[in-house]
Every structure is written in structure tokens, then in C-alpha cells.
Amino acid sequence: MKTAAPRRDGFLTLCTLTAVLLTVVAMVLWPTQAAATAADLFDWTTRSFGSLIQVFVFGCVIACIGLAFSKYGNVRLGDSKPEYSTLSWIFMFICAGMGSSTLYWGVMEWAYYYQTPGLNVASGTREALETSISYSFFHWGLSAWAVYALPSLAMAYHFHVRKKAGLNLASILQAITGLRATGPVGRLADLIFLLTMFGALTVSIALTASTFTRGLASLAGTPDTFAMQVIVIVGVSALFSASAYIGIASGMKRLSHLVCWGALLLAAVVLVVGPTQFSGNNIVNGLGLMLQNYVRMSLFTDPAGDGAFNRGWTVFYWLWWVSYSPGVAMFVARVSKGRKIKEVIYALLLGGSAGCWFFFGALESYSMHQFMTGAIDVPRVLQEQGGETAVEMLLSALPAGKLFLALYLATMLVFLAAHVDAVAYAVAATTTRNLSEGEDPTPASRVFWCVALTLVPLAMLFTKASLETMKTAVVLTAIPFVFILGIKLFGLFRWLMQDYGDVPAHHIESPTPSALVPRRSS
After folding, report:
1. Percentage of the chain surpassing pLDDT 70?
2. What is the pTM (predicted TM-score) of this model?
3. CA quadruple 117, 119, 120, 122: dihedral sign
């Protein structure tokens, strides 16, 4: 039976843009009221759902490990060879799953935790300093990537194994629940997903723009103003629009290589020219503390206190990763044809975590050393002048500091281009009906969404919204996806049991094509 031709979903596009524009107008016209409302909503949401989110994410880690070591880990996603080399494949989904603000957090995150530590550690102490980097490793490690892995596998299985058309959220929900993708529930799910993508990108784009203009002001003496931030975002929009128009194989693949090699090179050089011995010891110590306290960090809710740290950071981070997960799932599914389930899990959990630990470990250790030796009081600069100023001061203090700052800013811009390119692909795929395996949204559709995705971050920058307000945009849009992800995970495990439950493990592992054809129930 011939499938219908892909077409743009005008109704979904119009609803999304209307909601986004109304949000932007409200923020611009009533910035004070918007900030106060955001603070109240953030507090209520994290208090109401915080413990549930922490249990859910911890469960995702356990499920990933169990799935990888079970017979289902050998199920191949599609009947062809992988389309991309392993390195390009890992680089592309790292760029899809991590925002360019990672470069900001990689330098500054420990300073936030030093002032307001988790696990009821006293602030400003040696213990707080040691715990701070372990929490960075925790928030950017196994739990976070597990949130990406399971929905990615569900989408990839739906698309490559069960051969269902439609690389969007509504199509997989239809396959699991039977509710029509074009019905009210399916349309609502896709609309929530699109709004979630806008919320998820807010922190990345806004922090990237403000950090870049501050660094550029130091390098070239340009003004650090909103107008300059607009110019930066427009310039980057042109870059990732060009990448989107070229396509995944040429555009996204090249950008992901530039980003990942650039970030790894930056971290490696800082590790070498900085306090190498201290950094090595600090990284090992931080990993040890994180692994030692992993279960406690995962389920720490601070019932005897106000829970400010776990709600403001751990729950926020888990919801940030959740908000990205549907889009990342679509992108990972698109580039993972021919991979085994366990390959996807290992690459995401181990590859993603190791990359983050190396990057954060090198840059944060240098930043912490500058503070410990009295060269730069990073927490004080963060509190009084902002994290963007602290980043500029820290990088400028390195040997050939201006060169390092320039490399850092260039990597950040390309990172943003690659990341928004991947998100725009997911958004364009959602607003394109009837996509089949091997088909992509049109370049024009991807370019359109690349530009539209900058609207909310620009409004945040214009109103000088605080980091807490930006966090609210993430939290509010992500909450519905915890329940939607639950449905996707139920569908994945049900399909695996239906298709391979009675197939012996040695048949799944066999290279014989006939042994790899699953037994599906009707």
C-alpha cells in the first residue's frame, strides 16, 4: 500500500506560533509580573512533582542497564548497516542532546553549588568545594543520558523495526495507545512537544548569547548590549539555517565534528596548561564522590529542610533533559538505523557521560584552582557581576588567554548552531505528516523553525530575565512529558516482549537474517 506524501501540518504550526508569540508579548509588556508569576509556578511545580521526577529518572537508569544486559540488547534497529561511523554518530547525538550553554556550565557550575550545596553540606566549606564538582558529574552523567536513551530506543524501534511512518510524538503514541495521531490527543501531544522545544532552548540560547557578547566585549571592545546579543543570535541563525538547508549528512555531521573536537581540544589544552596535577586529582576525587553518593544524590529530597537545592538544581536538570528527550529521540532514531539496542545505550550513557566528565572536570578544576589560590574569587564575581564576567576573567587568565577566549567563543557559537539544527530537525519532523523511513523534512521547513526557535530566548534577553525565570520555561513545558515518556517506555517494553519474548537469546544474536526477523503479534 502506497503511503501518503509528506506534507506540512499548517494547523499545528499556526497553534505553536500563536502560543509562542502570546508568551513573548506578555513577557515584553509585563516583565515584572511575568518574573513573579514564573517564580511562583517554579516553586509550586517542583514541590508538587519533584520526588516523582527523581524516582522516574532513577528508574530510567536501572531500566537502561537491565535492557543493555538482557537478550533484548542484541535487537538490531533496522535491517541495514549503520549509516554513519561510530564517532560521527556519537558526536551528532551529543550535539543534539547538549545545548551550547554546556560551555558556560562547564566553567561555572561548581560555583553555584559551592554557595548553595546539596546533601545538606555547609556552604563555603572545603566539603562544599569537593562536593560541587561531584554534583556537576552527577547532573551531566548517567542519569541524564538514561533519560535520552529509553525514549530514543522507543522511537527508533517504532520507526526502524516496526516500520511505522511518522517521525513524531503523535505517531508513536498512536502505535502504543491506538489513539489517532490526527485526533485531539495526538495533536495536543505534538503541540506540547513543540512548546517544550521552545522552553528547552531558552536557557541554552540566552546564556550563550550573553556569555558570547561579554567575551566579545573583552576581545574586541564591542558593546555588551541587547542589540549586540540580537546580532549574535541572528548571525548564528544564519549559520544553523545553512546547516539545516544542507542536511544531516553534510551540515549536521560537519558541525558536530567541529563542536566536539573543539570542545575536547579546549578541555585538553586547559588541562595541560592549567594546574594539571590538581585537575587530575580533582576529577578522580569528584568521580569517586559522585559514585559513592550516587543513590543518595538520585533520591535526596531533603524532607527535613526546604529542599531548595534538589528542587532548584536536580529536579530542574532532570526536567531540562526530559524536555529535550522527545526531540533527541527523533534525532537519535534518525541516525541510529542498523545499530543494536545495547550499542545505543552504551554510546549514550558511557560516551555521553565520559565526554561531559572530561570537559567539566578540566574546566571546573581550573576554575576552582583559581579560586583556591586567590587569583580570582569566582563565587564573588558570579554573585556581584554575573557568571558571564567570571567566564571571561577565567579564560583571559590562562596563558595566551585572549586566544583561549576566542576559541571558547567560536566553539560556543558552532555548538549552538549544531544544537539548534538538531532541534529544528525534530520540530520540522513533528510538523511534517507522513514521513517514512529514509525521508527528512524539507530544508525550507527546517530553516523556518531554526529562526522561530529564537523568539522566546530573545524575549528573555530583552526583559533581562533571571536564570530562575529561564528555568521556569523549562520546568513548566517539561512536566507533561514525564507522563508521555512513561507511555513510550511502556510501549517499548511491550513491543520487545511481543516481538522477541519467545525468541531464544542465541537466535537474536545470530547473524542469520531470518533469525533477526521478529515474531510480531497482530
Report:
1. 85
2. 0.84
3. negative
